[in-house]
Every structure is written in C-alpha cells, then in structure tokens.
Amino acid sequence: MAVRTDCYDKGHKERKMNKLAVFDFDSTLMDGETIDFLAAPLGLEEQVASITERAMAGELDFYKALVARVALLEGLHISKVDEICSDLPMMPGASEVVAGLKERGYKVVCFSGGFRNATSPAAKRLGIDADFSNILHDDEGILTGRVGGDMMFGFSKGDMIVRLQNLLGIDRSNTLVVGDGANDLSMFAHADTRIAFCAKPVLKEKATHCVDIKDLREILKIADSI
Fold it and tell me: Which of 37, 102, 150, 163 holds its CA 20 to 30 A away from the CA of 142?
C-alpha cells in the first residue's frame, strides 16, 4: 500500500510553523484591573487598587495580595460581578492584535491573575483560543471572599506556558508573551519574544521589546520583525 508522503510532509510543516502568543488580561488586553472595578460598588476601589499597584510592581507576594483583595469583595452579588465584567473596557487594538496574530499562525491565549467572569466573555468576544484565570467562590450567589483557580501564584503563568508549549509542540523561539506586571515575569522566562506593554519597570527589565502607548496593534509590528 502506497504512503502519501506529500500529505505527511505538508502536515508536518504546518505543525512546525505553529506559534504561541500569550497575553496577560488586566491592563494588557483590558484597560484596567478587573478587581478594582469590582471593588468600586463596595466603596473599596482605592484600598484594593493600592494593593494591586504594589503587587504589580513586585513589592508584594502575588498570592497574598490576591487573597487579601478578594477577601474585601465578600458580600458582592455574583450577578453584579457578571454585570461589571460584561462591560469592561478593552485596550485599543485588542481585537485587531488577536485577529492579526492568528492570521500570522499564532495560537492566542490569555493568562490572568484575575477572574474567569471577565476573561471568558472577553476571550469569546476577541476570538482568543483559550483563557486561564481564577474563580471567585460564591454561596447562593453571594461572594464569600474566597478564590481558587489556575493563576493563584507568582509562578503560575510560567508553569502554565510550559505545559502549553509541551502540549502544542511549540518551543520558546516561537513563543511571544505580552504583559505589564511582576506576575508576568514567570512566563517571560519561557519566551524569546517578551513584550512589556505599558509596563512596570520590573517587567521592562526582562523584556525584549517595550510598547509604551496604549495601542496593542504595535505588537503586530514586532511580530512582523522577528
């Protein structure tokens, strides 16, 4: 029986051409921090934002900061969470960069130390292939102040990107990552193209490229240059 080597070769080449682009969500794909928006109805926006700022600058342990901030959300109705998350402002160029990268052969994924209530609707709207984030625990529709999920720790994004690279057969040379804060450092360690987007100094130090304007379309220029 004859073997169609031409079909095998074509498929093999296509697999080798696969690339991976991983975006942070808060202050990267989305213009702001989800948890700050959620704290606003409770009158706790400034308190939560202060913790967020220090965590993203690398001054606080990410897990401890996440747990402390989510505890302040206790009592918020999950329906209010979903209402807020359905109307979060996307960063300028978000739709265009996702579509553009997919046209260039990238699988596009979102990692977030925030919450699935925000990332899953946004991923569906933007055409992102998969999102990994955390889950706010509720009891009969009321937040308990507890949280769990995929992205709880400072090392979580690095751990997950290695899993995806192994699953998809994509190495670091074909991996592009985009983030803004200290909890993106762990995924920066596993990509050759590291884009700091309107980022904290701690992340810019490890970046190969920096974008300092709020326009994600700038990333397509970088993708075309590598």
Answer: 150
- b/e 173-201 (16+ beta carbons within 10 angstroms → b): ebbbbbbbbbbbbbbbbbbebbbbbbbbe
Q: For the segment 133-177, what is each residue's pLDDT rounded down to a tens digit?
A: 999 999 999 999 999 999 999 999 999 999 999 999 999 999 999
CA dist., res. 204 & res. 61, Å (int): 19
SS3 of 21, please?
A: strand
The residues carrying an active-site annotation are 24, 26
Tell me if 100 sits within 8 A of 12, measured CB to CB.
Answer: no
Report the candidate in 168, 165, 161, 169 with the shortest Cα–Cα distance to residue 185.
161
CA neighbor of 117 nearest in space, from 107, 97, 99, 131: 131
The residue ranges of every structural domain in the chain are 17-225
Q: What is the CA radius of gyration of the chain?
A: 18
CA distance 30 to 42: 21
Fold observed for domain 17-225 = Rossmann fold (3.40.50)
* Amino acid 57: pLDDT: 87
The interaxial angle of helices 62-71 and 45-56, nearest 10 deg, is 170
The predicted structure's pLDDT at residue 17: 59
Q: Are 176 and 161 in contact (CB under 8 A)?
A: no
First to last CA, the chain: 43
Q: Residue 121: is its pLDDT beyond 60?
A: yes
d(CA 188, CA 42): 35
